[in-house]
Model the fold of this input.
Amino acid sequence: MSQNNQAGFRSLLPKDIDWKPFPAYPPEAGLAIISGKASEPSPYMIRVKVPGGVKLLPHKHPEDRIYTVISGVFYIGRGDQFDPESWKPTRQARLLFCPAIRPTSTGRNQANTSPK
Done:
């Protein structure tokens, strides 16, 4: 393989992720663009960091989403109502598939228990 073909390959360590605030999130949460642009109709990858106790209000995404829980427990609720009592846990190293245009609310609890 020539040097030119290898130019697109790279490795990203957790310490090298450039976390930034995102206006739609509470100030404690962070967003990192790993690859691509979410505003364009092409593949992209983002990481979202949600500290314990932070909750995101119901919202929708125009495309299907696949989440990987890297650490802790990620809770997700379905529907237009903000109801943490109905949230379901997704534990570390699991995947979560969210279809487009379906409202969800999310949160994370440091103690890995229900975010009530």
Remarks:
- Residues 111-115 have pLDDT under 50 and may be disordered.
- The two ends are 54 Å apart (CA to CA).
- The chain has one domain: 16-108.
